[in-house]
Amino acid sequence: MRARAVARGSVFERIRDFVDFFAASSPARFAILVFTGLVLLLTAVLSLPIATIDRSGTPLADAFFTAMSAICVTGLATVDMASHWSTFGNVAILVGLEVGGIGVLTLASMLGLIVSRRLGLKAKLLAASDTNALRLHSGPVSESQAIRLGEIGGLLATVAISVLAIEAFITLLIAPRLLLAGKDLWSSIWQGFYFATSAFTNTGFVPTPEGLEPFAADPWMLSAISLAVILGSLGFPVIFALARYWRTPRRWSLHVKLTLVTTGILVVAGAIAIYALEWNNSATIGAQDPVVRPMTATFLSVMTRSGGFSTVDIGQMHDSSLLVMDMLMFVGGGSASTAGGIKVTTLAVLFLAAFAEARGDSDIQVFQRRIPPDVLRLAVSVVLWGATIVAVATIAILQTTTAPLDKVLFDVISAFGTCGLSTGVTENLPDAGKYILAATMWAGRVGTVTLAAALAASQRRQLFTRAEERPIVG
């Protein structure tokens, strides 16, 4: 018996050591492997007959798409989420939302912690990379960041506690409103938790066939969902900093300040643009009371952070409005958050660089801090890779469907930004289009920086500097 125990222990230790070695040698590849494995596992679960209401099972393309949408916390769907899935299927999807909302690298670091029963320096580096992509790109950096290595244990605790606390709080806000709407106690609690989870993870799945249409003019319901979406899109490093230093804003890091300021500007600017472009559209907010229209425009602007909920038919919006929302969805939310996109700090760095260039400054400076050049290079890389992914996916889907370019582009950007808003193209895609859009969600959620780091065999170190020459730009 003792020999068997030793053998079992040695096998477990070998597995643990292999996981530790693989995670340390290539954190990005390890995270992507875990992430992809979860998608395939959820696909298998959703393919079971018990996952559907009529016990007929779900076609592989639809099960895979839904699993990818859940783990990527996107919210796009090819089936009716309210009537297709059974209680078992909905619970599986909710678990997928929670897992996906934690984040690819944070999830991988937690798995490594569970397997190895410790959080050493290598695991801390892995978890830290989710809060600062530069650590993935070029190793630890010396600048003050949102979360330092010594605070990673606190970050992981904050992730777990904030998820449970915020979703419970939002459930308490939504459930009484559902009770007042005539639903029974159990349905109110269940649907309230579903809405809260879907909102905080920035997914956009709804548990009812009518969606949010009954609450289109309800400020309480829309405010509760918007609050959850904003908190989820800010990112765990920002939540960590706000929870710890909410009384002393001067101690907020540059990342926290840029995330809050840029998010606020985008929400306000988006709301004004949507209101101005749609105010006379009788198919959307033009048919609402004048008092309700600003609330709807603000709600839609918040949802482009990656929320995915809507109280109007997106397919009926003007092309100009869709283009504005394309840009907002492409940006997405904060780094290390449940949102997708290129991230608000990436946009902020690019604008600050353009502003510095216009002024003739040699450095990018903001909030009495200097942003190093490698951050700008990384921001440019993220935007270019993101634009390339969107362009390739759009061209591929245009070959599989007869839908117009503006509608296809909107749904592709929604997939890349893991937003979930749709013009109606997604649900009518052929199987080939579903797989293409699923791959777009995967690339958008994994992140262009993580993907690039995973594909790079090693970090190149050049021990010499070539002669400098300036090409003509612009």
TrEMBL record:
Membrane topology: Multi-pass membrane protein
Highest taxon of the lineage: Bacteria
Intracellular or extracellular location(s): Cell membrane
Key word Transferase present: no
Parts of the chain that traverse the membrane: 30-51, 63-85, 91-115, 152-175, 220-246, 258-277, 327-355, 375-398, 435-457
One Pfam family linked to the record: TrkH
Name of the molecule in the record: Potassium transporter TrkG
Naturally occurring in which organism (per UniProt): Leifsonella bigeumensis
